[in-house]
Amino acid sequence: MHYYLDIETEGIDKDGNNKKYKLADFKNGYTIIYFYPKDDTPVCTQEAYEFKEAMDKLNKYAAVIGVSSDSIEEHKEFKEKHKLNFILLSDKFNKLKKAFAEQIKPASELHRTTIILDKDGNIIKYWEKVDIDGHIKEILDFFETK
Predict the structure, then answer these.
(1) Residues 6+ away with beta carbon under 8 Å from 6
(2) Domain that includes residue 57, residue range
(3) Which of 15, 110, 121, 126 has the most Cβ atoms closer than 10 angstroms to its Cβ?
C-alpha cells in the first residue's frame, strides 16, 4: 500500500464544506491530483478555472482534487469567489507534496504538478512543471487513449 494514501488532511468538498480526507477515500476509481502554489494568484486561478470548466468531462474519468499549502479559510474564499466545483485540500505542512515528490523524483519540488492515480493508488501518469495552456486537453487525451 502506498503511504500517501493514508495521509489525512483537511479539505473543502465540492460544496464548500470542511471535511477530513485521505486519498484512500478515492480508491473506487481514478483520481486527478493537481498541486498548485497559491490560491487566488493569476496563474493558479486560471488553472482552477480550466479544471472547473472541464469538470463534466473530467468527472467521466476521475475525481479531481486541487492541493496547495493554503489554509482552509483561504481555500473557502478561493472556492466561493471563483465558484469552484471540486475538492481543495490544505497541505499546510506539505506532507502530501513530500510523499509524492519521493515517488516521482526524490529531488523534485512539486511546484505545479498533476498526478493521476489508479483505483489502487498507483501513480499511472504525472506532469511536472505544468504549462496550464492545453493541460486539460493533455489529461483528457490521456484518458481517451487509455
Answers:
(1) 22, 23, 24
(2) 3-144
(3) 110
**Domain count along the chain:** 1
How far, in Å, CA of 61 to CA of 30, rounded? 7
Contacts of 143 by beta carbon, 8 Å cutoff, 6+ apart:
30, 60, 61, 62
Helix/strand/coil for 133: coil
Q: Give catalytic status of residue 26 as yes or no.
A: no
Is pTM beyond 0.85? Reply is yes
From the list 44, 58, 99, 110, the catalytic residue is 44
Distances (CA, A) of 112 to 28, 66, 101: 25, 11, 12
What phi, psi does 36 have (nearest 5°)? -140, 155
Going by their DSSP bridges, the two strands 18-21 and 62-68 should be labelled as unpaired
**Distance of CA 79 to CAs 17, 45, 58, 127, 131, Å?**
11, 10, 18, 24, 22
What CATH number has the domain bearing residue 45? 3.40.30.10
- DSSP structural state of residue 108: -
